[in-house]
């Protein structure tokens, strides 16, 4: 298997965090190499309109935003290579990033691999995802459902938070949970279950998202697991909030991760890890905010850290 010359900085991931890190390290003349995986541009490329990224008062298409970031990174000397990272060896210098077809060597590494929303896999979900009524982000898409009925699937903190956020816009929010008690923290559960606009639909699993033929969500078919009875909630939006899976597996043996697989940064930092010169940024290290702008901010912080570290240790 081939190895590369030693790179100054390798950035793994092409979402907001990775591309912002590329812009900053590029402008620092470090000639960053960005490794892109199976979803170039990350989660935002699956969103239609982004209305909350500062600087775009008219909103911006998610794909366009990522195209812009990529162009900006390229302008400052970023190189992009497609590769699938399988493991890493951070025990010695240079750091080794093992990909399926080659090994990449780097003095510093910024990991910005994001997180993938967990999906239910029910019929209609995939077909109507992204701009057609099925979404995984109330903060991103909630405002499109003014005065409409919507459903949130899930019973954790995310589902409770999404449901509460949606009450600002939607007429009614059905919170569909497969058990009869929320997993969410007590305070979030209480807020959600007592909100006048939220109707909890207990003991119910989603069966299908309806509206595929029309190309827009027209309902959520659910089944009560205790009675076996199926019914349809006439909703225009379905928010899937059953958790995220951080894309950290190839790095988990080399760095600290929490019980859900998210990177645990070193004490006192959002982006430093226990390995000198190795940084994390974006949703792979953040299960709380998970916004494009916070990921970009972490990417910027990681880039500045890498730049300083390289200056001290010889770029
Ligand atoms: P989570 O806690 O893992 O909850 C996932 C929910 O989805 C559970 O209620 C689960 O049901 C349900 N679920 C899972 N698979 C399902 C399926 N196939 N069909 C239907 N329902 C399914 O995930 P999360 O809510 O994203 O939270 C992840 C972590 O982030 C947690 O530690 C949470 O506390 C934290 N978080 C914190 C905040 C905050 O503090 N404001 C906000 C968001 C997230 P069961 O309950 O039956 O397992």
Written account of the structure:
It is built from six helices and 19 strands. The chain is an alpha/beta fold. The chain folds into two domains: 2-116 and 244-312, FAD/NAD(P)-binding domain; 119-240, FAD/NAD(P)-binding domain (3-Layer(bba) Sandwich), CATH 3.50.50.60. Helix 4 (157-166) links the parallel strand 11 and strand 12. Helix 4 (157-166) packs parallel to helix 5. The radius of gyration is 21 Å and the shape is elongated. It binds NADP nicotinamide-adenine-dinucleotide phosphate (NAP). The site of NADP nicotinamide-adenine-dinucleotide phosphate has 19 residues, from helix 4.
| SS content category | alpha/beta
Helical stretch count?
6
Radius of gyration: 21 Å
User: Any ligands, ions or cofactors bound here, and which?
Assistant: NADP nicotinamide-adenine-dinucleotide phosphate
- Shape, please? elongated
| CATH superfamily placement of the largest domain | FAD/NAD(P)-binding domain
- For the record, the CATH architecture of the largest domain stands as 3-Layer(bba) Sandwich
Mean pLDDT, as a whole number? 94
What's the order of the H and E elements? EHEEEHEEEEEEHEHEHEEEEEEEH
Tell me the helix content.
Answer: 10-25%
Q: Give the count of structural domains.
A: 2
Q: The CATH topology of the largest domain, please?
A: FAD/NAD(P)-binding domain
Low-confidence stretches: none
Strand content: 25-35%
- Largest sheet, if any? 7 strands, mixed
């Amino acid at each position: 298997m081939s190895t590369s010359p030693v790179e100054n900085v390798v950035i793994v991931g092409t979402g907001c965090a990775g591309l912002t890190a590329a812009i900053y390290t590029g402008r620092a003349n470090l000639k960053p190499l960005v490794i892109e995986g199976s979803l170039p541009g990350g989660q935002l490329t699956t969103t239609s309109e982004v209305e909350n990224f500062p600087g775009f008062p008219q909103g911006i298409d998610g794909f366009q935003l990522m195209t812009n970031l990529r162009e900006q990174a390229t302008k400052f000397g970023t190189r992009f290579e497609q590769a699938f990272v399988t493991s890493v060896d951070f025990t010695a210098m240079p750091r080794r990033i093992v990909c399926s077809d080659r090994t990449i060597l780097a003095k510093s590494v910024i990991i910005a691999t994001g997180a993938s929303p967990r999906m239910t896999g029910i019929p209609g979900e995939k077909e109507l995802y992204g701009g057609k009524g099925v979404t995984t982000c109330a903060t991103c898409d909630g405002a499109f459902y003014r005065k409409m009925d919507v459903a949130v699937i899930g019973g954790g903190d995310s589902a409770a938070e999404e449901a509460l956020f949606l009450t600002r816009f939607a007429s009614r929010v059905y919170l569909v949970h497969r058990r009869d008690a929320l997993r969410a923290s007590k305070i979030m559960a209480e807020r959600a279950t007592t909100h006048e606009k939220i109707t909890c639909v207990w003991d119910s699993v989603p069966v299908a998202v309806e509206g595929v033929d029309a190309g827009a969500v027209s309902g959520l078919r659910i089944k009560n697991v205790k009675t076996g009875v199926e019914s349809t909630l006439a909703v225009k939006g379905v928010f899937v909030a059953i958790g995220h899976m951080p894309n950290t597996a190839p790095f988990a043996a080399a760095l600290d991760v929490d019980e859900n697989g998210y990177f645990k940064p070193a004490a006192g930092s959002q982006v430093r890890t226990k390995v000198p010169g190795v940084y994390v940024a974006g949703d792979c290290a953040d299960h709380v905010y998970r916004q494009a702008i916070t990921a970009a901010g972490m990417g910027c912080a990681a880039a500045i850290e890498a730049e300083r570290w390289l200056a001290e240790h010889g770029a």
